């Protein structure tokens, strides 16, 4: 799931007497760092779960295809997002070692501040609801060792539906106005009872947006390129309740964006980030996770700092 929980659309800027060429940021909202520690399994088995995410993102660098800062007086972007996730893991079995489940996620951009130094003549932004994400999943039973679990994994077929707020006259929208498929594989490995490593690897495929942003001019449709993105984390249990560790994410667009069916060069996006994190378990049913991420090597997208707190409850 979506982090970056805001879709930043096409960035077209005009400085005094100078035109800044249109920049890419075509990919939809994806899960960049929203999940981290112990990601391969649900913490308390079958039943209903709620997860609430609060995320703050801050950037003063919007980048071009070479990773350079856009030639605008300012490129200050700050937004805050609340994401509500509801999950259900059933008792329906898939073979002898897995169960079926279903995820629903809905983001809401509660604050959106964009300052281009030109009274937002170059970059226009709006908040509101993001796209609904739905994903049936198969959760595999843990592989057990002598001292507890050794490995657990899950696969999910996530679909992003274009239900969010979208305005073709805005450069930054919570919604994407296109269906996308974002299936993933998540896994956790226990080196020993206290030390784990986790990952979640997505493949993103986007369908056409038939009402593309104004910055591309008079065109019929736009199709964002395909991408691979992943979260990774490792943690150590310093007490039975508290885990400390490192977390990160990586995004790489692997095919060109298409406009009216033609490939457009120089619009591929990339970024990676790393930072510290912590997880505190009040009980097997209640957990809080905090993560910080510091982005690096961004191209055709913002580069900044992401702070997140997530609360997990099993009913």
Automatic annotation (TrEMBL):
**Signal peptide (UniProt feature, chain positions):** 1-24
In terms of Pfam families, this protein maps to:
Phenol_MetA_deg (PF13557)
* Origin: domain of life: Bacteria
Q: Which UniProt keywords apply?
A: Signal
Q: What is this protein called?
A: Transporter
């Amino acid at each position: 799931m979506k982090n970056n929980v805001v879709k930043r659309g096409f960035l077209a800027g005009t400085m005094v007497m100078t035109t800044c060429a249109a920049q890419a940021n075509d990919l939809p909202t994806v899960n960049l760092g929203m999940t981290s520690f112990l990601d391969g399994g649900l913490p308390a088995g079958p039943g209903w779960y709620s997860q609430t995410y609060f995320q703050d993102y801050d950037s003063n660098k919007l980048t071009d295809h070479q990773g350079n800062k856009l030639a605008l007086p300012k490129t200050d972007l700050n937004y805050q997002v609340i994401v509500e996730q509801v999950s259900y893991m059933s008792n329906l079995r898939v073979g002898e070692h897995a169960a079926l489940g279903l995820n629903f996620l809905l983001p809401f951009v509660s604050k959106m501040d964009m300052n281009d130094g030109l009274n937002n003549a170059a970059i226009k932004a709006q908040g509101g609801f993001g796209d609904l994400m739905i994903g049936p999943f198969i959760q595999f039973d843990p592989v057990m060792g002598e001292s507890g679990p050794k490995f657990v994994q899950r696969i999910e077929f996530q679909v992003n539906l274009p239900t969010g707020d979208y305005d073709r006259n805005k450069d930054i929208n919570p919604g994407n106005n296109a269906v996308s498929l974002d299936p993933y594989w998540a896994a956790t490995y226990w080196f020993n009872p206290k030390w784990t490593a986790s990952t979640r690897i997505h493949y993103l495929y986007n369908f056409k947006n038939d009402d593309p942003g104004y910055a591309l001019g008079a065109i019929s449709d736009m199709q964002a390129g395909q991408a691979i993105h992943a979260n990774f984390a490792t943690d150590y249990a310093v007490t039975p309740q508290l885990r400390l560790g490192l977390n990160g994410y990586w995004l790489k667009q692997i095919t060109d964006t298409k406009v009216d069916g033609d490939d457009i060069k120089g619009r591929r996006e990339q970024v990676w980030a790393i930072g510290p994190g912590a997880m505190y378990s009040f009980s097997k049913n209640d957990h809080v996770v905090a993560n910080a991420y510091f982005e690096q090597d961004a191209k055709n997208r913002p580069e900044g700092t992401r702070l997140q707190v997530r609360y997990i409850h099993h009913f």
